[in-house]
Each structure stands twice: as C-alpha cells, then as structure tokens.
C-alpha cells in the first residue's frame, strides 16, 4: 500500500487561504506576519519551520509505517519501568483487562454519537448506568452523561451557577432589564460585577481553564486563602470575602494538596449568607468518596470533577472524563446531556436522551452550553469499571489507597529528611518539605526518575506533592523511601 505524500502548504495547511487572503488577514490584525501573530497569542516563541516537520519523507507501505513508529516508541521512556507516585489530578489506577475487551466491541467503539435511540440502546443503557453509579458515589440527585474533562466540567459548573444566581436574584445586576424566566450563558450581563470565590486549593490547571471560560462575561474571581498550617480552606478568609455580589463558592475535595476539606463547616457558612451563593464542589479523585462523605452529603448545589480514575488510562494526560452532577431543582440549567429510562411502544424498558441543552438542539436563547459532545466512550469505560468493581470493592479500593499513602507518608517522615508541608488529613495524596537545602524538589524528582520512580510534583522550591494508589505495592513504597533517603543524604 502506498501512501501518497502531500507536502504541507507554506502557511495554514487546513485553511484554503491564498497568499492574498493571508496578507489581508495580517493587515486586519495589524501584524507583520506569522511570528508576530503567535507572539500576540502565546508570547515570544520560536517557530519551527514547516520543512523540519516532514517526519515522513516518502510514501511507506504498511509494514514500514509500523516499523517507523515502533522505532519512535522505543526511544521513549518505558512507562512500565516506572513506579508512579505523581498525581496532581490524573492518577495511576489499575485498569482490568475486561474493560479493553468489552469497550473494543464495535457497538461501543465505532458508532457516531448515539442520537438515535432506535439504534443505540446498548450505549444509552451503558450511559444510564454510568450516570446512576456516579450519582450514587457523588451523592448528587442528577449526573449527566459526562463532560470533556474535570477542568471544563468545573468551568461549566461556574457558568451554570451564574445563570442560577441571576434567575434567583434578578435585581442583583440586571439593571434596566426586565426579569425573564431563564437566563442563558449569552444573556449573562457582560458588565456584571458578580464575584466568584475560588479556594486556593483548586487544581491550578482548572483555575486557568475557568479564567478562559469566564473571560468574556467579566465576572470577577477572588481566591480564598488556605490555612497555612492545615492546608484547608481558611474559614475566616471566606467569611471576610462573602459579600452581596458573591454568586459562587468553589471548593475542591480533597484539594489540590491532597487535604480533605471540612465541607461540614464550609457549606453552612456559604448557604447561610443572603443572597445565597451557590456551593460548587470539585474533585480530581472521586475514589476518595469511598471513605469520606461525598459532596451531596454536604448539600453541594453542583459537583464538577474528573472521573479518569474509573477505568481510564493516564496516557499523556488525556483524553479524560468530566463528571457533572447537580441537585434535581437545577436540572434545566445543566450543560451536556442526560440519558433517561422510559418505555417503548411494546411497554418494554428503553433508553433515550431526555435532556440536551445544546444550542443545536433547542432554541439558542434557552441553551445552557455550546458543548457539542461528551466523552461517551470513556464514560462507558467508567461504567464497566464500576460494575466490575462492585459497591463493596469500590470501598475496599478506596481504603487501600488511603492506607498505602499513609504508610508511605510515615516512612518518608521516619527518614528524617522530610517534614509535613501541611498538617491536615489527606486521602491518597500528601505534601512534604525536603529538609536538605542542598537539593531542590525539582532536582529530587529528576534524581528519583533516574531510579525509575516518578516521585511526585514540585509545588515549591523544597515542596513536593506525592500520591499513592493500588498500583504501588509495598516493595514500591520501600524502594521510594530508601531511594529518597540515599538521594537527599548524598546531596551536595
């Protein structure tokens, strides 16, 4: 088989613009050329000449093409060689072989988005089960059929909370307008002064995505400090910042530093304020809800987080699986789609999308989001994983994660080369400070990688974020502790 090779166009390969068009575009944008254009977008970067990107210099037959990419793969680090203790939002969990086997069925793997219930009962049933199991784990009334990832899910949750706040408080910032039944994303007042309070314990990548999402509606974001001792969201700082224009309070559970937040104290404080802000809880590790109470238990209005831990691979950080849940009262403002159970013409159980608030499906003014699809395949993987796991197994795995992380934590403290960064309780992720000033956290991580250990994520010059899961056995933990001791002791 010969693959015809077409050299890339000198400029935008996939846009059929002529040189004249391109010059006009540059003129309208008031830039000299491509380099200045990209500098304005993402800063001063070195652009690679298109000729240097010609990795395939000629047409190849199938066998040669496989060999070509196998050679590239051999040059990459072998992930199986590493013991992974780095989390920070994406965690190394065991994926049973049954998932790959079942998900590879063409009914799941190859169909286009399952709009038509008459041909998609299997996928719709799997998504219905996914929603049901996720709702039980999160303790939420309603969970949708998934979002792209946790960060996008949380950004959509904040937009949803703003819509709900406007509907509940039409006079708060809609001067000169008549109240309506529903306000869509497009109707959020661009000059509003709504304030969104976000805990410093939120994943920093999520924070970046949120800022991008709300950039065009000009709602303000203010962070709530963490208690420097415990690592929990500071209640006194939250009290100080709760004002009349606060529409949303966002907390991550456990937070980015692994600390378990005291939602039992936070939720009454938020909901007792008048006008009532919406309480949004996020999580990058919902496995934690096998041993700690879920967001629904604490009366969270909206949950938005990451579900990659349920039967999906880490890959290179994606594709991931966004989880989204809410109270039943707020269902009309939820983004994405919801699969429901009904009866067909023969009075047999059947499944169909019962809510899809995408602009393409309903009146644009009533749409809640322009999200056009979700990660259905990853959601089905999660459904298979959770069904294999069982309710009891989920709790046991969750407890195992907690125990392994605490064993590693204690072993590292006993070396004498670490001290706690925060003192709060944690689930399967914790922070430590390296006590030897002669080695930074980044250098420590590099040295550990040389020994085949992904030791964690740098959070400060001497601070490191470490996680442990069921994929780390006691030998891995012993090796981590011994290697860490050797590296720090000999640092010069």
From TrEMBL:
<dbReference type="GO" id="GO:0004375">
    <property type="term" value="F:glycine dehydrogenase (decarboxylating) activity"/>
</dbReference>
<dbReference type="InterPro" id="IPR015422">
    <property type="entry name" value="PyrdxlP-dep_Trfase_small"/>
</dbReference>
<feature type="domain" description="Glycine cleavage system P-protein N-terminal">
    <location>
        <begin position="194"/>
        <end position="478"/>
    </location>
</feature>
<dbReference type="Pfam" id="PF02347">
    <property type="entry name" value="GDC-P"/>
</dbReference>
<dbReference type="GO" id="GO:0009116">
    <property type="term" value="P:nucleoside metabolic process"/>
</dbReference>
<protein>
    <submittedName>
        <fullName>Glycine dehydrogenase</fullName>
    </submittedName>
</protein>
<dbReference type="InterPro" id="IPR015421">
    <property type="entry name" value="PyrdxlP-dep_Trfase_major"/>
</dbReference>
<dbReference type="InterPro" id="IPR049315">
    <property type="entry name" value="GDC-P_N"/>
</dbReference>
<feature type="domain" description="Glycine cleavage system P-protein N-terminal">
    <location>
        <begin position="13"/>
        <end position="163"/>
    </location>
</feature>
<dbReference type="InterPro" id="IPR015424">
    <property type="entry name" value="PyrdxlP-dep_Trfase"/>
</dbReference>
<dbReference type="InterPro" id="IPR023010">
    <property type="entry name" value="GcvPA"/>
</dbReference>
<keyword id="KW-0560">Oxidoreductase</keyword>
């Amino acid at each position: 088989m010969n693959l015809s090779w077409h050299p890339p166009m000198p400029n935008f390969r996939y846009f059929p613009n002529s040189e004249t068009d391109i010059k006009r575009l540059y003129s309208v944008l008031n830039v000299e050329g491509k380099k200045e254009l990209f500098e304005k977008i993402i800063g001063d970067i070195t652009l690679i000449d298109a000729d240097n990107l010609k990795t395939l210099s000629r047409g190849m037959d199938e066998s040669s093409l496989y060999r070509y990419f196998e050679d590239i793969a051999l040059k990459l680090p072998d992930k199986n060689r590493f013991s992974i203790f780095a989390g920070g939002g994406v965690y190394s969990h065991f994926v049973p072989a049954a998932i790959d086997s079942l998900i590879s069925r063409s009914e799941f793997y190859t169909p286009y988005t399952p709009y038509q219930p008459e041909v998609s009962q299997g996928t719709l049933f799997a998504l219905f089960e996914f929603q049901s199991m996720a709702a039980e784990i999160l303790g939420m009334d309603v969970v949708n059929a998934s979002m792209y990832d946790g960060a996008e899910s949380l950004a959509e949750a904040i937009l949803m909370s703003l819509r709900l706040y406007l509907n509940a408080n039409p006079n708060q910032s809609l001067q000169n307008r008549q109240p309506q039944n529903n306000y869509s994303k497009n109707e959020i007042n661009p000059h509003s002064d709504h304030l969104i309070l976000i805990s410093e314990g939120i994943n920093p990548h999520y924070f970046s995505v949120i800022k991008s999402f709300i950039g065009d509606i000009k709602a303000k974001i203010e962070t709530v400090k963490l208690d420097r001792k415990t690592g929990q969201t500071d209640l006194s700082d939250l009290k100080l910042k709760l004002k009349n224009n606060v529409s949303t309070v966002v907390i991550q559970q456990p937070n980015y530093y692994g600390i378990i937040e005291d939602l039992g104290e936070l939720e009454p404080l938020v909901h007792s304020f008048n006008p009532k802000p919406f309480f949004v809880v996020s999580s990058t590790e919902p496995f934690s809800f096998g041993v700690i109470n879920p967001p629904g238990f604490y009366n969270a209005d909206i949950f938005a987080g990451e579900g990659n831990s349920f039967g999906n691979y880490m890959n290179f950080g994606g594709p991931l699986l966004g989880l989204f849940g809410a109270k039943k009262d707020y269902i009309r403002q939820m983004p994405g789609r919801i699969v429901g159970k009904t009866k067909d013409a023969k009075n047999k159980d059947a499944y169909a999308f019962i809510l899809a608030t995408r602009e393409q499906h309903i009146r644009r003014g009533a749409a809640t989001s322009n999200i056009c699809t979700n990660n259905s395949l990853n959601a089905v993987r999660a459904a298979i994983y959770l069904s294999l796991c069982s309710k009891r197994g989920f709790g046991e795995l969750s407890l195992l994660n907690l125990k392994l992380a605490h064993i590693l934590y204690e072993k590292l403290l006993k070396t004498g080369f670490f001290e706690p960064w925060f003192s709060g309780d944690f689930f399967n992720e914790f922070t430590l400070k390296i006590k030897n000033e002669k080695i930074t956290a980044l250098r420590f991580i590099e040295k550990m990688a040389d020994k085949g250990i992904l030791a964690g994520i740098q959070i400060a010059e001497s601070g490191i974020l470490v996680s442990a899961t069921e994929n780390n056995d006691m030998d891995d933990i012993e090796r981590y502790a011994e290697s860490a001791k050797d590296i720090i002791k000999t640092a010069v």
